[in-house]
C-alpha cells in the first residue's frame, strides 16, 4: 500500500516548506496542489477571463486542458505540466495570479476537474500532498494527516521576510491580506479549509521548519500504520 501524508493549512503557515522538508527526510514525493490551482488561474489570467464574473467561460475550457505531475528524470521529484509544458513557477506565484487564484479555487467545476488529477498522484509509493482540502476531500483515507497553522501576525511576518512586497508595506497590511485569504478559503461553499477530525494540528508560531518535521516524524513513529 502507498503511504499517503496529507498536509493542509492556511496561507503562509509554512506548510509548503514543512511538506518539502518532510519529503526529503522520508524520501517521499511532494505534491503541491496549490500550484495546480495556480496553473488554472494563470491560464485564465492569460486569456483575460475574470473567474469571479465569468466562471463559466473558464469552466467550458477545462475539457481541453491537461494538468499532471510527472516524475523527473531521476524519479525523485515531481514536476507540474500544463498542456504538456512545464509550468512557469515565477509567473504562477506573481501578484497577478495570486489575486485571482482564490476565486478560481472556489469554482466547483474546477475542484471536480482537479480531484482525479490529485488522486492519480497518490498512486505513487510515498506521497506528501499539501493543500487546503487534502485530508477532508482528496485523500480522506490518508495514512497521516497534519494541519499546519500559525497566527495571522506570524504568517504575515514570514510572508514579509520572503520579500516580494512594495517598499513600505506594513506587517498590519500583510496580516489583513492573510486574514482575507483565510476568510475566502474557509467560508467557501465547496471544500472549505478545515482540519479533519483525525488530523494532528500543529501551531508553528515558535517553531522552525525542522522542529515541525521532527514533530510529524515523531507522530508517525508513535502511530505506526496498521
Ligand atoms: O497554497 P497556495 O497559496 O499556492 O494556494 C493557492 C490557492 O489555491 C489558495 O487560494 C487556496 C487554493 N487551494 C485550494 O483551494 N485547495 C487546495 N488543495 C490547494 C490550494
What does the model show?
This protein is an alpha/beta fold. It has one domain: Rossmann fold. Helix content is 47%, strand content 17%. It has ten helices and eight strands. The strands form two sheets. It has a five-stranded parallel sheet with strand order 2-6-1-7-8. Strand 3 (67-71) and strand 4 form a beta hairpin. Helix 1 packs across helix 10 (209-222). The N and C termini lie close together (11 Å). Residues 11, 33-34, 37-38, 101-102, 105, 131-134, 185 line the site of 2'-deoxycytidine-5'-monophosphate (DC). 2'-deoxycytidine-5'-monophosphate binds next to helix 2 and helix 5.
Task: Describe the SSE topology.
Elements: E1 3-8, H1 15-26, E2 29-32, H2 33-46, H3 55-59, E3 67-71, E4 78-82, E5 85-86, H4 89-92, H5 95-105, H6 108-121, E6 126-131, H7 134-138, E7 144-149, H8 152-162, H9 171-187, E8 200-203, H10 209-222
Parallel strand pairs: 1-6, 1-7, 2-6, 7-8
Antiparallel strand pairs: 3-4, 4-5
Helix pairs in contact: 1-10, 2-5, 8-9
The chain binds 2'-deoxycytidine-5'-monophosphate.
Amino acid at each position: 500500500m502507498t503511504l499517503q501524508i496529507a498536509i493542509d493549512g492556511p496561507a503562509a503557515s509554512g506548510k509548503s516548506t514543512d511538506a518539502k522538508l518532510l519529503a526529503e527526510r522520508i524520501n517521499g514525493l511532494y505534491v503541491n496542489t496549490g500550484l495546480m490551482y495556480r496553473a488554472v488561474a494563470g491560464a485564465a489570467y492569460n486569456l483575460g477571463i475574470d473567474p469571479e464574473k465569468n466562471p463559466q467561460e473558464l469552466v467550458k475550457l477545462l475539457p481541453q486542458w491537461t494538468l499532471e505531475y510527472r516524475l523527473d528524470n531521476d524519479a525523485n521529484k515531481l514536476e507540474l505540466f500544463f498542456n504538456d509544458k512545464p509550468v512557469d513557477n515565477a509567473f504562477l506565484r506573481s501578484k497577478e495570479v495570486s489575486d485571482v487564484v482564490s476565486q478560481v479555487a472556489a469554482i466547483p467545476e474546477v475542484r471536480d476537474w482537479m480531484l482525479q488529477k490529485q488522486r492519480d498522484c497518490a498512486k505513487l509509493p510515498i506521497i506528501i500532498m499539501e493543500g487546503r482540502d487534502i485530508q477532508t476531500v482528496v485523500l480522506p483515507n490518508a495514512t497521516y494527516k497534519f494541519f499546519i497553522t500559525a497566527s495571522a501576525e506570524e504568517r504575515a511576518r514570514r510572508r514579509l521576510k520572503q520579500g516580494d512586497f512594495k517598499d513600505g508595506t506594513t506587517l498590519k497590511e500583510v496580516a489583513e491580506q492573510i486574514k482575507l485569504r483565510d476568510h475566502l478559503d474557509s467560508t467557501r461553499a465547496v471544500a472549505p479549509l478545515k482540519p479533519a477530525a483525525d488530523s494532528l494540528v500543529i501551531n508553528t508560531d515558535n517553531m522552525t521548519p525542522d522542529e515541525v518535521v521532527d514533530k510529524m516524524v515523531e507522530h508517525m513513529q508513535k502511530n505506526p500504520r496498521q
